[in-house]
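Explain this fold:

***
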Amino acid sequence: MLSIKQLNANLNNGVYDEKLAHLYCRNVADIGPFRDRIAHVAQGYMDTFHKDESAQAAVFSAPGRTEIGGNHTDHQRGKVLTGSVDLDALACAAPNGTKMVNIFSEGYGMISIDATQLQPVKEEENTTPSLIRGIVAKIVSMGWAVEGFDAYVISDVPGGSGLSSSACFEVLIGVVVNGLFCKNALGMAEIAQIGQYAENVFFGKPSGLLDQMGCAIGGIITIDFQDKDHPQYHAVHFDFASAGYALCIVDTGADHADLTGDYAAVPAEMKAVAAAMGKEVLCEVDENAFYQQLPALREKLGDRAVLRAIHYFTDCHRVEKQVEALEANDFDTFLKMVSSSGHSSYMYLQNVATYRDPKDQPVAVALAMAGHYLNHRGARRVHGGGFAGTIQAFVPLDMVNEFKAGMDALLGEGACRVTYIRPIGGCTLVD
């Protein structure tokens, strides 16, 4: 750690400029706002915890993540492609010499937990304190001595955007504890698993590992979830910054309320197909046997369940082809696979619109207009869960301003977020 006075001097003298430019996919001349964010989180730490510039602290970062390939394949233990983005959460933090963990999140307030009370608390389920307690508990169970610390947190990863703001926070807290008390000995895959543990055991949500891995590892990674206890991941070596594209995440403004049934039906129908073939999830089903039994499956389960299974098998294959294309530096083929995945989600997975009110189809309209503005270039697809929420578009850099203006005019100012694939996941920015 270093003093906040020295931190500010280093910021003003450009000591971190190259590092920030690489991390946030910008030219050095354009990283002023990122320097300002670090200064802001340090000032927030001082103001909140009554410190002066002589206080020592470190600054940590964890990015949001975006789904790039494999839509609704993870819950069937299939294959996905994910990437970290240049939107992130920052923490300025330091040990406080007590047993209390105090985390102030800008816009949300203070959370304090006792680092000696590390059992799940029923009343904390589905709350942020449960995540913090679970992360600390897991790291302590691994043999590390975790004491109290103070942290001031800011984030520009929007909630409900499909960019995994909750997993980003989990990874951030894991990275903070790793840096302050574990000498950064924990690997980022371990940090991801620690976040998943906290979410499963303390928060009470039986989530997979996709979001945490995407935030923790950084860059583009592919994950095969066939072995549910030991998912296999592989870093995809591709310089996205050189591709000449921005990744736009477009918020359709649609309300997720009353969509629980629509979301739940997707894995339920896929699992019904698997169960009809004597398996738990689709990754265990022989694809050729599925197609051979398709007439009987249609009769037993209906067409939508069968179509959703077809999407699962084809989208897992597309992930493999996307990885091959990126590692061969064949971005055109990669974009074709993105478009193909979007088509499959729309036609077979059917998570673009519900059937309750045909007048309300914001995701479909957003996809149509994204195609209009792209004019046969780039690619676009539904992003994440679907039905509401966001779409994703790979936009040539020379079209970004026009694309953003058009989508904002359609959906509201700020609906289109221009992002880039960040090459580094959870990390210590300044120590």
